[in-house]
Amino acid sequence: MSGTINARLKDLSITLPPATAPVANYVPVVRSGNLLFVSGQICLADGKPVVGKLGNDVSVEDGAAAARLCGLAIIAQVQKALDGDLDRVQQIVKLTGFVNSTGDFADQPKVINGASDLMVEVFGDKGRHARAAVSAAALPLGVAVEIEAIVEVA
Amino acid sequence: MSGTINARLKDLSITLPPATAPVANYVPVVRSGNLLFVSGQICLADGKPVVGKLGNDVSVEDGAAAARLCGLAIIAQVQKALDGDLDRVQQIVKLTGFVNSTGDFADQPKVINGASDLMVEVFGDKGRHARAAVSAAALPLGVAVEIEAIVEVA
Amino acid sequence: MSGTINARLKDLSITLPPATAPVANYVPVVRSGNLLFVSGQICLADGKPVVGKLGNDVSVEDGAAAARLCGLAIIAQVQKALDGDLDRVQQIVKLTGFVNSTGDFADQPKVINGASDLMVEVFGDKGRHARAAVSAAALPLGVAVEIEAIVEVA
After folding, report:
1. What ipTM goes with this model?
2. CATH number attached to the domain at C4-153
3. Fewest beta carbons less than 10 Å away: which of A88, A106, A108, B1?
4. What Å distances lie between residue A110 and A65, A97, C91, CA to CA?
5. Which subunits sit against C, judged by 3+ Cβ pairs under 8 A?
6. Does the distance separating the beta carbons of A38 and B134 come in below 8 Å?
């Protein structure tokens, strides 16, 4: 695909995962005005869920890698919603990151940094977002991380 | 009440619960531009909280029924905010569903489907929303499900 | 600083904390259209995290005080984003409050009231917001409360 951001993805050797459709009565992305609301994306590696719990069987480093996978899935959904043209992204407005963790885990920010860093790598200053990073008691399929996003587009 | 959506509610034999006011310094719905931000609605049956924890004493089926109750409360709040005229709903933009569960529960999506399915039953394609479904360690009054919403109106 | 709201803060003897910058690839506030999206603010007292878990070692009263600290941090970030002029706040649109709690805690609303009450004290009717209050399994640095906000500005 053409465009500055798609070229940057290539330069960074980033291959986006397929933007998959939910198998339920909801959709991956809804646009309202200039905002795209992106459904919570779980961490999938080659389509398989990356499972586990921070503070137990997943390290902070592996959690950050899982968060990056969520970030890639978000970008893939945005790319599809924009008919491939990621240059229409004006700003990654907000990420809300949910970490599957034990009750005494305290490094949620370091985990979600895996997605935050990706956004700035790919979109530069347009990738700098507001963020919340909290723990969920559990997540779908037992995955380690789920992240949702709000994105402003032209 | 008149209107296409209110008629559909009647056809579906859906009776909305009362849209209750919070007993604190917040409000059920705030409008900003064309968006209604709907406060988190807990599952109430005949005004009484439906309590319990998924993965422990609440089945996925009962959880989905609880999520549907949250969805009904959301529609009731939107109806009230729109002076009864649900035909002004342009799109259910986003649902964020919190499931009260044990740490090893993995079927959050099946639970929140109870609300997602309701939105499509009632609003058709305008009911197809972006969504996140995660577990909360606990919820107000011990309820099984809480769901908040963003709704675009005309 | 001048302005009606800054004067009200003085009348209420409220001193805002410093609006600190995150030490990661995200920002405290992103503006999109007329909305400010404020990153999740944790409870800090004199810059030190207020840690603990509701239902265990933090009382509801202390939790509400912690939520108020989150609210002060939100106002500080909004003040900074508006170059000091809090009179440009049109409406506190939404607060999402995450309470670090045990699995059987049920008073999330009373905790988050600490922030909700503050918003109405400071902004009057413009402070009445939509809200969700849920428990997180854990929070960054082990803090008791984290709250994010959406604010409409002129």
Report:
1. 0.96
2. 3.30.1330.40
3. B1
4. 10, 11, 32
5. A, B
6. no
